[in-house]
Amino acid sequence: MVTDQKHSSDSTYSKQEVIRYTKKLAQIFRLNEQNAEVYTALSGENRALKKQLEDYHFQHNTLERKVKRLEKDVKSLETELEDLNECIDRKAVVNSIHEIVPLLIGKKDKKFEDIADLFPNIVHLNLYNSAEFSDKTLNRIAESYPNLKYLNLEEYDDGLITDKGLYVVINSCHKLEYLSISSYKEFSEIAIWNVIHSCPRI
């Protein structure tokens, strides 16, 4: 009788152990499944990041090669410019332009439009004894050359340049250091005063 009770107790204990063991195995399996899912997801992200890194590395190498080619081209251009500078006398070119511009100004102001387009950065303009021009010419000079420093309008007095044309020039060309207009008798004292006031460098 005692033996049967002991056997029954041992059997119950063994069943409980099996149940606990089974539950633990189930938990372990679930954890393993979860770990497997996480590992799969992380592996996918890792592969994607690795692919992006490879793409960035390829792009970097491509850009680096392009930069090297550009640097080589820039050096080549610098060499060509140095050679060009040795062949050109800048002072002679500037002097030639100063001589050519007055000759290009014909008897009609319309021709000055072509001159302004050809020589957009003139700071020295000598129209001494040039062909006729008028207030319209001075308007175009003011519009085209706001950085003008030298302007010689001597030896031409045909009444086509008035205070109005002079006002336009001095109100635009504030950097003027030299302005020759002594041959013009029609300019008023007010116009002369405005020249002095607007162009203090003269």
TrEMBL record:
Transmembrane segments: none
Ranges in a coiled coil: 46-87
The entry's keywords: Coiled coil
InterPro entries reported in the protein's UniProt record: Leu-rich_rpt_Cys-con_subtyp, LRR_dom_sf
Protein name in the entry: F-box domain-containing protein
